# Entry
Amino acid sequence: MGAAFAIGPTRSFDQDPRYGLVVLGEIAGKALSPGVNDQGTAVQVIATGLRLMEEWDRDPEGDRPVHDRLLIPPIDEADMLDDLFGTSIRYGEADFVVAIRLQKVLRSLGGLPGRVGPAARTLAREAGRRSLKALPAAADRARFRTAFH
# Structure
């Protein structure tokens, strides 16, 4: 029975899909730190997140238990989106380029027919509110509002 479980001191991408999303989110957060200030890397992580979550949403096995006697809590899509985009939302809320890219990606994910859509729509609204408060230039706030409201 013990051979069916992998137990160790660290997480791995194979065992924990959220772990990979956390790592990507941390890469974006580090890229947006004042010492690095690399919008391009953050935008690349956001684009990668779009592809990953689109793939997750179309997973035909996602709703069907594979092992009917193994009980584990389901992975919550809102938590996954926060793992992936949360740091970009927090550290990039005042960066026009990052804020716009996040809105485009979250709104695209919000249109998906599966489990990701509702959580992405909620996160898009939250990110939009944060950016409207944080963007320093009135012109950027007006452009942002016009584009997404």
User: Anything to note?
Assistant: The first helix runs from residue 17 to 31.
